Amino acid sequence: MTLISFVVPAFRVQGYLRECLDSLLGQPYRDIEVIGVDDASPDACGDILDEYAARDPRVRAVRLPHNVGLGPARNIGLDRATGEYVWFLDGDDRLAPDCLPEVADRLTATRPDVLLVDHVRVHWDEHATRSALPEVFPDPPGAATFRLAERPETLRLLHTAWNRLVRREFLTGLGLRFAPGWYEDVAFSYPVLLAAGRIGVLDRVCVHYRQRRAGAITRTLDDRHFEVFDQWHRVFAFLDGRPDLAGLRPVVFERMIWHYLTVLGNGDRIAPALRPAFFRRITADHRRFRPPGGYPVPDGGDGLKHRLVAAGRWHTFSALRAVSQARETTRLTGRRARPVARRTARLARDALLHEYYRAELRRPIDPTLAVYAAYWYRGYACNPAAVHAAARRLAPQVRGVWIVRRDRVDTLPPGTEYVVAGTRDAQRALARARWLVNNVNFPDFVRKRPGQVHVQTHHGTPVKVMGLDQQRYPLGAVGMDFAGLLRRVDRWDYSITSNAFSTQMWDRAYPADYVRLEVGYPRNDRLVTATAEEVRAVRAGLGIAPDERVVLYAPTHREHLPGYRPPFDPYRLLDVLGPAGRLLMRSHYFHDREGRVRRRAEGRVVDVSDVGTVEDLYLAADVLVTDYSSAMFDYAVLDRPIVIYAPDHDAYRLARGVYFDVTAEPPGAVALTFDELREVFRSDAVTGASAERARRAFRERFCGWDDGHAAERVVRRVFLGESG
């Protein structure tokens, strides 16, 4: 029998589900099964579960035809479990590395009915806070097991399903199921502890409990929080059916009142207008379930709250809460004063321009104006350029204006309306535009005013970790202001994604309430629609003869290694390309800001770093060589050979972090050394059967939405307001 069955329900957690599953399957312990339950999630959760099930026999994917909620979804997973123990893990949480062997050792040594494990809360900014286990058990119980009556303080541990493993036969013998509705853990976790004959505690952090910035029920203002009362009524119904547990009724009652007050005290859950009604429900349950002999009322302020609840004194309770909040506000204001002062000093040099910008914010929005920018005002490029071109055709009533650096003005296509970054004209455009379209974020000073629409187009499918995920890789996040990043992300109304994988990763890296436009990348429309005649013209414009075999080398930037260049000798590669070979070399766009890139041609090696439109290079190239760059996803649209050359693969993964392993799931042949790269071309593995299969699978996964109409879909949705 399998030792542990993990039941992982999934609903709207596509950005986190892969990390959750990887944390289970990557443990140094294999005697597990994973039952992933797609609760009719509207995102890609079901596809992710199917993908993992297809490649790992320990995973079983269950797709539900309609949404049933977290509790019933767990029940469906439980019914399919075969393990001796069941562990319910939420799809947005993850297991701590290397914890399973210790869990398995404790289970096999003590055979508890319930094993409680420790956890940490991991917040969006990656700081972690410990659980209450050290306070509940100052002296950990060790390997000894106990009944709840012997250690009633156990009830003070967080009442979730995911911090405990339950023996499956014990659970099914109880006939205990998860109830529908919110707070479903309550009616499961407490009865399990009450009925258990053998409870164990493992003083080891096993679960990283994610505190999501957006989308968590605990931070959702909704009257469904009243469902907590029904869940606690189920707990007391369980107690009513077990007279042998009557002695535990007082401590369970105290936990119930504590939980009610916790929900009421959280300003993100109960709307102010509903607080009096919620308080009255607490008072009613206090009178209904209070044990005849009383219960252990807490000391201090918490005890005062209990007494006010018992007396039904809402107005006094509310007044005391207001005083407490005022004190906390005063304390926080003092702590924030210094950062505000520093921020003001940084803005001083731009004060005049920003004052002008703020004045323009008071003027009406121009309902016809769309402002475009790309790559920190570097010119006319990428997805914004493709959207702009489509808007000129489909929505001519929209006036498009580009913001560009002064030194890039001459790169704009003829007839393109523009303003120069850092001028009054640019500030006016930012303040008054109806639409703001960018493939990076606009500066921090830009306000999101009512009526404006911000469109984040992004500029690539992510291989390396991005956004908040960079907090785990400090070498790749030097100088980043993550709080500022989130303020910028909160301005987004639309996030354009090129494939389902990108949507999942952006959800995780940039958590906020924006609309996901899953339409493909506008910049790739040209790659889909380009004719053979256009390709010949592009090659001719670059001085490439019709019979030349062109290899484009386009490595990514290593933020953690300034000045690093992968080991690459263009002339030694030309030796194996043969006399018809031509090598185009393009540096990452970050490098031209360092002023080091100059175009040059030396025989059959050409530096094309200053070619403004990278799509021209894609069309001209017969083969792409890259490493962790998003170029591979765009180039794959052309269905031409791709070679991954990743000489620092292991170091890059550890230092910078990646979302998936391009050497394990490549778009073609793979080389980890320069000699291997030369051999790939010498042996013609570039176009071999293995490379063709890899490219086909890669295209199916990442290029399915690129059909030549992505920009049109964006324009119709964003500018013309069409749905569908």
TrEMBL record:
Superkingdom of origin: Bacteria
Annotated protein name in UniProt: Bifunctional glycosyltransferase family 2 protein/CDP-glycerol:glycerophosphate glycerophosphotransferase
Family label: Belongs to the CDP-glycerol glycerophosphotransferase family.
Annotated source species: Micromonospora humida
rRNA-binding among keywords: no
Gene3D superfamilies: 3.40.50.11820, 3.40.50.12580, Spore Coat Polysaccharide Biosynthesis Protein SpsA, Chain A
Keyword check for Iron: no
Pfam families in alphabetical order: Glycos_transf_2, Glyphos_transf
Localization per Swiss-Prot or TrEMBL: Cell membrane
